[in-house]
Here is the input.
Amino acid sequence: MTIISKATNRKLIAIIGGSQCTKEEAQTAEEVGRELARQGAILVCGGLGGVMEAACRGASTEGGTTIGILPGENRLTANPYVQIPIATGIGYARNIAVVKSAQAVIAIGGSYGTLSEIAHALQSDIPLIGLNTWSLSRNGQQDSSIILAQNPEEAVNKALSLATNSKS
Amino acid sequence: MTIISKATNRKLIAIIGGSQCTKEEAQTAEEVGRELARQGAILVCGGLGGVMEAACRGASTEGGTTIGILPGENRLTANPYVQIPIATGIGYARNIAVVKSAQAVIAIGGSYGTLSEIAHALQSDIPLIGLNTWSLSRNGQQDSSIILAQNPEEAVNKALSLATNSKS
Amino acid sequence: MTIISKATNRKLIAIIGGSQCTKEEAQTAEEVGRELARQGAILVCGGLGGVMEAACRGASTEGGTTIGILPGENRLTANPYVQIPIATGIGYARNIAVVKSAQAVIAIGGSYGTLSEIAHALQSDIPLIGLNTWSLSRNGQQDSSIILAQNPEEAVNKALSLATNSKS
Amino acid sequence: MTIISKATNRKLIAIIGGSQCTKEEAQTAEEVGRELARQGAILVCGGLGGVMEAACRGASTEGGTTIGILPGENRLTANPYVQIPIATGIGYARNIAVVKSAQAVIAIGGSYGTLSEIAHALQSDIPLIGLNTWSLSRNGQQDSSIILAQNPEEAVNKALSLATNSKS
Here is the structure.
């Protein structure tokens, strides 16, 4: 009997964004989550509210799998659409685990916590798709590492096509 | 339409032990993984070889879900039976995430890495079941926090009955 | 006999920047380190080469104290001007410790690792002074949280005047 | 002009133990801190109360250097004898940094947090001296990795003679 790992079959995509967000960002996040689930990807996020909750809600409505990597020790702090809560107790270090574990990352809006996750993703050459999120320049020169998308479907399609097993 | 989180339905149980282990420990781990899957629990572990691989293999043969929280950045370092690799890039800090995310922990054999995980679990009052693993005494007094089990089935039954949503 | 903590007397300032850098950035970093030492501050950094090494070299020449919080386990990976190597073994999570431990941060140039540190600092309202480093905008709006400085002396003066004991 | 790193001259020794402790443990910790300072070593600890505070108090009375690596973000949570507070914001992951950064570790009493630090030290072959602390056995066999000491002076002498630059 041979057991084939499913690791190579289902892609792991992170959605990052603020724990508080606008109504518009929530709608975007929900649609991104929905589309990821439709295409069979596993959603990983920081497990809290705002963009994270909306994304998990979207994925859940389509029967998708949702993982929330929480900063604290209490799994009950996860939003109600997280199916697999990972309550790390390692505080901000969990931001790193969220993005490093993904094969591609979709950023929606977001504040400085999201910016730290964007930076950690780019540091490891993990494809980063942005929907109305940060833009960066260094020494006056625009940094074009964030791959822009105009809508949820485009973001998901880009994330899935760029997701690889090569490095992370 | 109501969406019910599955977080409350499926228990998350960690299996910890050495990345190198004896044949006997591997057999024990495989049977623990198998039994966890039969009873519907999600298995979380450190994602590498030895006890971790044997446990994931057991769970996989019964159609269970396996999560591997890896120390490094490369998801391909996960053993082939890990379905959801979390490649954290945070080194030893991942040991903490493995146990803190579980509602109960089963330790099989193990060396100092496993001992650190036992300590982190007990520190957070997470039920810890031991199969031929460390025993502890402090200032000459035996510490009885590790709940002993004689075989895989007993370990799984104790873990599942003690797993709670109350704290972690 | 009363013992007064020196913690309130000597300020802890982080210098962040690339482990590889231009000659100009190295000169800037060295002068920043020198000036911090002259003014009695303790320098904390990531402990490796490039900007970090140049800053530690500058501080050392003025008799200052230098702390290097390293990602790996080997204290010998610290640059030769680190007096107190903290070899954490926690990988990228050490980036967070570098900035969170400081009362103000000075960023010089830098790539994505530095950007992650900038984000973690801003997330915690730690004053962040920039010398030819990243600039940020969000949803098309310039973010002005990074306090610009034109030269090393101005950067150090701003860092020391903004450093507080209030939060971090 | 040649700059010689002081890193090779002053040894970094960790003291670990409970944030709450008995009067006797506090006296032991204070004397250990005192002796470490007399012999020129830098003391690193978790920065909080109990054994950590007593050790820092001892070192301070002899003019020693004390570093506290804190779990939270607030440097003011450090005990008053910490001269260099490192407020990491990474929670339990800081336990790892405390021991991995030391060339030798002295454990005094302690609960499960201390046990996790003992395990992380032994995992990295960092010499671990115990004063009335945990003792360990595995599969019924006593583990003799913890080097026992009968009094503070013996603990410090053993720690300093075993401290090396070779690995950590």
Summary: Chain D touches chain C through 41 residues (CB under 8 Å). The first helix of chain D runs from residue 23 to 38.
